[in-house]
Amino acid sequence: MTDQPSRTPSTRADLGKDPARVSGMFDEVAPAYDRTNTVLSLGNDKLWRIATTRAVAPRRGQRILDLAAGTGASSVSLARSGADVVAGDFSAGMIAEGKRRHGGIPNLSFVEADATALPFADEEFDTVTISFGLRNVNDPDKALREMLRVTKPGGTLVICEFSHPPAALMRGLYRFYNDRILPVVARAFSSNAAAYDYLNESIRDWPDQRALAGRMREAGWEQVAWRDLSFGIVALHRARKPATPDQA
Fold it and tell me: What secondary structure letter does DSSP report for 3?
């Protein structure tokens, strides 16, 4: 009998969302991350990115923090406006891949950042946005408060995240796709298919649109609103930090 080469087990996070395991999981999938997302979302990831960019409405002269930025695809979209964009992610592998791909864009910088302990000063950004990352944070409520801290009074928060389709038929179709189709496709295209088992678990465990809006208000955000994308598979939440009295 011949010896088989040993293989290092893939890192897989669980709903405990230990930061080291989550970041390690994303380190592993970084090189093929964007391609895999496009395949698994049937191309909708690009439409969700466009909707998020429009909600942020970036302008030249603004300073924007894009959290859970991954390899920087969403950050590049924001930077095209001329705004000063900081792409933050707590996966060193994602940051390295983002710098490799987009490091030459002058108004885009990459920073390793934990959403629950952001390495930025108070009231530093006009807008903070996070796409498909808040549910991976081990303390989302603390992250929402940290985002409030680094946002200027009157500034905005935009969250794009997987959610729960309100229509029963769509919920059923979505669950069938996630349970039966997605794992097969993930094994074919991802370097860490087990990571997408966690994806399913994290989506099922995540609060629905109304519940997330409530948690945003509890963290101190106001004027909280959301709209569904792709029949509620994804929800785009938007909120504002209370203005100071002279701004009101």
Answer: P
